[in-house]
Write a structure and sequence with these properties.
This protein is mainly β. It is about 5% helix and about 40% strand. The mean pLDDT is about 95. The structure holds dTDP-4-keto-6-deoxyglucose.
């Protein structure tokens, strides 16, 4: 897997004088079926989230309110994305180290996941992650 596979995906936006509406259908607007949704909010100034990679899980992250930066790395290449609109998000494939930082006040980070929560799917140690991605491929 490569950081180049992480990409911004634009979502449908139904504009309306009553307020805009965006929707996401798993397997249509994002490249996986959605098994889990969670969101991060009330983030104190200067706090950072993430700092791990997933063996199998794919994710789609949206700034439903405010803004934050997502830094993704495949162990070799690093890319930084600023998320600040609720009508697009960042797709992150498996085996990508991610760090989320620079949260604006009142921001809400929503994540759609391809898998149920499973701690065994995480690399939480960067050295262990690097070791895995640098293993010679058979
Ligand atoms: C990711 C970033 C964006 C659960 O019990 N269920 C869940 O679905 C999740 C996501 C977490 N947890 C528990 C596990 C930990 O005891 O909540 C605690 C905090 O989780 P974590 O330290 O993994 O939180 P973040 O914000 O660093 O990472 C999360 C996701 O784990 C991760 O997949 O990409 O948000």
């Amino acid at each position: 897997m490569s950081a180049d596979q992480c990409r911004i995906i634009d979502l449908p936006k139904v504009t309306d004088p009553r307020g805009n509406l965006t929707f996401i259908e798993g397997g249509r607007h994002i490249p996986f079926e959605i098994k889990r949704v969670y969101y991060i909010y009330d983030v104190p100034g200067g706090a950072e989230r993430g700092g791990h990679a997933h063996k199998k899980l794919e994710q789609f992250i949206i700034a439903v309110s405010g803004s934050f930066d997502v830094v993704v790395s495949d162990g070799c290449n690093k890319r930084k994305f600023q998320l600040n609109r609720s009508y697009y998000g960042l797709y992150i494939c498996s085996m990508i180290w991610r760090e989320i930082e620079n949260f604006s006040s009142g921001s809400v980070c929503m994540a759609l996941s391809s898998e149920y929560y499973d701690e065994a799917d995480y690399y939480r140690d960067y050295a262990e992650f690097l070791n895995e991605v640098n293993k010679p491929k058979r």
